[in-house]
Amino acid sequence: MWPSTRKPDFLLILLWALLVVAGLVALYSTTHGPAAAFLPQSVRDNFVRQLLWAGLSLMTLGVVLLLPVRFFQNMAYLIYGLTVMLLVLTLAVGREINGAKAWLYVGPIGFQTSELAKVGTVLAVARLLSVRQARIDTVRYAMGAVALILVPAAIIILQNDMGSALVFLALVPVMLFWSGLPVATVLLVISPAVAGYLTLVYWPAAIVFAVLFTLGLYWHTREAYMGALAALFTGGTATAAPLALTYVLKPYQLARVLSFTNPEAEVYRQTYGFHLVQSKAAIGSGGLFGKGFMQGTQTQGAYVPEQSTDFIFSVIGEEFGFVGAALVLVLFGLLLVRLVQLGTECRHPFGLMVAAGVAGVILTHVFVNIGMATGMLPVIGIPLPFLSYGGSSLLANTLMLAVVLNLHMRRDDFSIFV
Predict the structure, then answer these.
(1) CB of 43 closer than 8 Å to CB of 31
(2) Region 59-68: what's the mean pLDDT?
(3) Which of 145, 234, 270, 402 qualifies as a cystine partner to 61, CB 3.0-4.6 A?
C-alpha cells in the first residue's frame, strides 16, 4: 500500500515499460541474430547487461516513489553539487571512450556521470525558478538558472562530449519558458541554435533568417534593445560559426558536423558519412511493415555502426518498418504529453518545473537522435532514451521519470509556501 492516498500514474509507467521493451527487442536483434557473428563478445553481451540495468531501473523507480516530496526540494542544490563534483572527478581521473573522457569506473562498472548531472541540474534549476515564481526580480533568477545549467555544460565540453553538453544547453529555453518568461525572450535564447543550423546547411539562409528574425522580434516587442540583441545573436552566430568550425572544433568533430550535409562525399563516405548512408538505407528499406524481426539485411549484416546505441532507431525502422518507427514516435509523444500534464496537475511551481525539465531532456534526446539517424542532423553521439544500449542513460532517465511520478503522486503534500 502506498504511503500516500494517491497512487502513481500507471500510464506513465506503462509508456516507460513499452519503450524499454522496444529497446530490448531491437537490442536482442542486433546481438543475437546473424549480426552477432560480426560483433565482439563484449557487444554481444549488451542485451543481458541492458536487461539487468532495466531491472535495476525498475527497483530505483520503486525506491524513489517512497521518498517524501520535501526530499527533492530540500536536497536539490546538494544533489546538484554532488553531480558537478562527479563531473570534475571524471574530468580528472575518468576513462576516455570514443574521444570523450566522460566515464567514471568503479571496478568493472562504468558510469557516464553526465547522465546523473542531468538529474541534479533539473532539480536545482526547478528549485531556483520555483522560488522565483514568488519574486519580482525575473532577470536575476533567469540568469541564475542559466548559470546553473552552464556550469555542468562547460565541464562536459571539457570532457569532449559535445552531444551531452547540447542536452544541457537545450534546457535553457525549455525551463525559462515554463518559468513564465515572455515568449519573445525564449525565442531570442534559441535563435542562435537556428542560425547555427542554417549556417551549416546553407549560409545565405542563415543571413536571411537573421534579418527576418531581427525585424520580426523588433516589430513584436517594439523594443530597440530586443532588436539589437536579435541581430547580435543571429548575425553573430552566422558570422562566428564558420570560424568556430575552422579554428575551434577538432578534425573528427568537424567531420561529424559537416558530413551530414553530404554524407556520400569522398572525404566522408568511409567514416561519418558511412554511418548516415547506412542508417538511411536501413530505415528506407523497411517499407511500411518492415522486413521482420532479425531479418533486416543492413542490421544483420552489421553495416550500421553503433546500431545498438546511437543508431538503434535504424534497427526499428528496417525490421518493423514505418509502422514500427511511427509507433515508437507515438509512445515518445504520449510520454512527453503525459509528463507535462502531470507537472501542471501538481499545482506547485517546483513540480511543474521538474516535469518541464525532464520533458525537455527527453525531447532533446529524441529530436537529435532521430534527426541524426535520418540524416537531418549531424552525428554527435546522443542515445535514444530507454531504447539505446547504455545503463547510465536508462537509469538516469528512469530516475527523472520517477521523481515526476513522486511529485505528482504527493502533490497534496507540497507546502503552500514556495
Answers:
(1) yes
(2) 94
(3) 402
The DSSP H or E segment spanning 270 is none
**CA 198 from centre of chain:** 21
Written as nine digits, the cell of 36 is: 552477432
Cα(226)–Cα(220) distance, integer angstroms: 10
Contact 391, 53 (CB under 8 A): yes
The pLDDT tens digits of the residues spanning 321-347 come to 999 999 999 999 999 999 999 999 988
Judge contact between 250 and 260, C-beta under 8 A. no
DSSP element (H, E) containing 232: none
| C-alpha to C-alpha distance for 299 and 282, rounded to whole angstroms | 7
Residue 149: exposure state from Cβ atoms within 10 A (0-12, 13-18, ≥19): buried
| Burial class of residue 195 in the structure, from the number of CB atoms within 10 Å of its CB (0-12 exposed, 13-18 middle, 19+ buried) | buried
Place of cell 502513481: 8
Compute CA distances 32 → 3, 227, 302, 414, whole Å: 43, 57, 12, 48
Residue 47, pLDDT > 50, answer: yes
What are 110's strand-pairing partners? 105
Residues 6+ apart with CB under 8 A from 368: 163, 166, 167, 377, 380, 382
CA 259 vs. chain centroid, Å, equals 21
Query: Angle at CA 206, nearest 5°, toward 194 and 361?
Result: 10
Report residue 92 as a C-alpha cell. 580528472
CA angle 62-66-71, nearest 5°? 125
CA distance 121 to 124: 5
Distances (CA, A) of 225 to 22, 184, 188, 211: 49, 12, 12, 15
287 — alpha (psi -120 to 50), left (phi > 0) or beta? Answer: left
Strand partners for 97: 100
